[in-house]
């Protein structure tokens, strides 16, 4: 398969129903190919997520953030963290804010922007 080169002009996402009717975020990457044609890539493989101190993980369970994965990452204070997956990107800020201690912060980037970076 030949390599096609281009660059991304804009990233966004939309929430659409999947085959089972559940809400599923789809990242949209709009861009321009080297030959001048435009393109759109739709990617539904990434789940919205954030990282939380393992000590605060119990709070996330009470907020319907029931998909938690252990990681080898740590806070700046060397505390272990877990990855918290949520259904849609708009669930991240309220869940992260409700779960975090004052010293912790979640990313302000949208999942589409994080995907590009």
Structure, described:
This protein is an alpha+beta fold and 117 residues long. It has helices at 57-62, 92-99, 111-116, and strands at 6-17, 23-33, 38-43, 49-53, 67-74, 80-85. The chain has two domains: 6-43; 49-104, Alpha-Beta Plaits. The protein has three helices and six strands, in the order ββββαββαα. It is elongated and about 50 Å long. Mean pLDDT is 83; it is low at 103-107.
Strand order of the largest sheet: 1-2-3
Q: Give me the CATH fold name of the largest domain.
A: Alpha-Beta Plaits
Oligomer: single chain
The N- to C-terminal Cα distance equals: 25 Å
CATH class of the largest domain: Alpha Beta
Largest sheet report: 3 strands, antiparallel
Helix content: 10-25%
Architecture blueprint of SSEs:
Blueprint: E1 6-17, E2 23-33, E3 38-43, E4 49-53, H1 57-62, E5 67-74, E6 80-85, H2 92-99, H3 111-116
Antiparallel strand pairs: 1-2, 2-3, 4-6, 5-6
Structure in a nutshell:
Helices cover 17% and strands 41% of the residues.
Main features:
single chain; 117 residues; alpha+beta; Alpha-Beta Plaits; 2 domains; three-stranded antiparallel beta sheet; 6 strands
């Amino acid at each position: 398969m030949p390599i096609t080169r281009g660059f991304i002009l804009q990233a966004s996402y939309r929430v659409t129903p999947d085959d089972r009717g559940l809400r599923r975020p789809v990242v949209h990457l709009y861009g321009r190919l080297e030959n001048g044609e435009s393109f759109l890539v739709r990617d539904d493989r990434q789940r919205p997520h954030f990282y939380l101190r393992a000590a605060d993980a119990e709070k996330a369970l009470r907020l319907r953030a029931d998909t938690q994965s252990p990681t080898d990452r740590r806070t700046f204070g060397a505390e272990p963290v877990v990855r918290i997956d949520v259904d849609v990107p708009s669930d991240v800020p309220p869940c992260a804010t409700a779960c975090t201690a004052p010293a912790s912060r979640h990313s302000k980037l949208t999942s589409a922007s994080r995907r590009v970076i």
